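Handoff note, outgoing to incoming analyst
You'll be picking up this chain. Sequence as last confirmed:
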Amino acid sequence: MSLIKQVWLLLLSTLLLAFLGSFIVSTQSAREYLRTQLNFKDNDTAQALALILSQQKGDLTALELTVASQFDTGYYERISLIGNDGRMLVERRGPDEAAAAPGWFLALVPIDVAPGVAQVSNGWKAVGRLEVASQRRFGYDELWWSTLRTAGWLAVLGVAAGLLAGWGVRRIQRPLDATVEQAESITGRRFVTVNEPGVPELRRVTRAMNGMVERLRAMYTEQAQETDRLRREANCDPLTGVAHRAYFMSRLTGWLTREDSSPAGTLVLVRVADLAAVNRQLGRAQTDDLLRDLAHELGALTASADDAEVGRLNGSDFALALANPGPPAAIAEEVGVRLRALVKSRPRGVTVLIAAVGWRHGSTPGPLMTAADAALARAEAAAERGGPVAIEVADDLTKDSGFGEFAWQEGIRLAVEDRRAELASFPVVRADGEVIHLESPLRLQLQPGTEPVPAVRWLPLARRTRQTAGVDLLAVRLALRAIAADGLARGVNVAPVSLLDSEFTGRLRALLTEHRTEAASLWIEVAEPAAVHHFGLLRELAALLRSKGVKLGLEHAGEHVAEIDRLMEAGLDYVKLDASGTRGLSQDPARASYVTSTVRMLHSLGLQVYAEGVVNAEDAARLWQCRVDGITGPVVRVKG
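Most recent structure output, in case you need it:
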């Protein structure tokens, strides 16, 4: 039983005992008062009537008339005159009239009054004994109505006392509820502080809880900072802070191969021509400043993009990858505008070469880099003819021979309406090969009778035309039906932009309510940018899914995984590390240390950690050493 219920029980018991005791004492007091008054009245009446009867000189007729006259007043139950020999001389007895009080009340509080007694004489000679008994019905009625009035007033006082007690309990309950909510938030990986209450005892508890929360927050923040430091050491160039070659190539490979990435993008290579000569001319410090400023200008181009990366490939070469279908020439020119301003602020002799090439999903990094290098060579030749910045664009490889954008848009809409779709299956397994769940990306049949198309082909347009909510709900529906068919847990993706749809959450709730049993085996994943740009909506989604038994996870996690405050409050169940952060792990001790620290930090928050896109057994073995809970990717072989 909760503390508040115990307090209420104690208060109600105390009030009930107090009012019951007051009621019993009041009733008994009233009964004793009535009994005493009736006894006095009967004795007084008997004495007065005996005096009158004594004046009748023993005349029986006169005695009867006098007794009858007194009895007819209606206030007596019985008046009897008994002779000395025990013979009844005169008696008047009233009929038995029912009292207004109920029978159980008469039995519970009887008013037993002895009749008043007086001697009647004739001079010095005794005539007999007079007994007077008043009508007790009036006493019972008065006691009954008095009891009802007392009960009524006690009820009013009880209600007032209950309201006062309720106010007092609420005054105590508010800080208690805040403390309980604070404790529950800790178990839910949310760390909040509450205002200290006015009750001294509760103030000490709240102060202790707030202190613990601050210590935990500081501990996790310190751990996150250490993890972020390891991330920078493992993935970033120490001079410029941008990605080093290995990490950049991992990110680029992920965009080229991942099913839910953009269908096209642009790769830009930037080279500081003859860096050795620039170093001799400017000196080491100014040359380092030049490289840092160049990296900063390239990074500014990626600030508003989710899928973008800047890397330093070697001493003089930088690369910029943008996963979007924009024209490579326009992107190269934007880079050129920024770098011209940078070069103008430096002494003469600094030349920057820029090469851009478009890529499509499914390309391989080798040919793409070869095409970019060829364009960079042409830019170098052009720079020899003059100009501090030279730009070359490789042949446009991003053109698609498919049908136009409107046809794609209509194809997506009709496929969702007609439910022409299927789910792929990629297992996520534990170290012993046991399947945790199946990753189930959606594929749409854009035209009847054709093969279903992977998300990489249609998802960017669905995002742009705000159709992802319908697509994601269809994926959830298909996953729930598949779970009902074979009982295997399945994970589906929800696009961050779907969270902005005002109807999405309501429709998702209705769908999960309809399939309440299957919902317990459903895993829903959102990309890492959702935790950065739509954190409030993500937390609302987490609350909904938790109430339905659905697990919520963050996929493609990497750069922002160390944002500890948000992760603590997001309400997530698991995190999937992006392949760009784990590829080549077995050959890179620094990256392995970073992954180990990340896994340790996420485990301390109660989150499961999985690794995406694992391609070889060596990386898989190293990931198990890093204590990940599961992996997925080409290397996975399902047990049995």
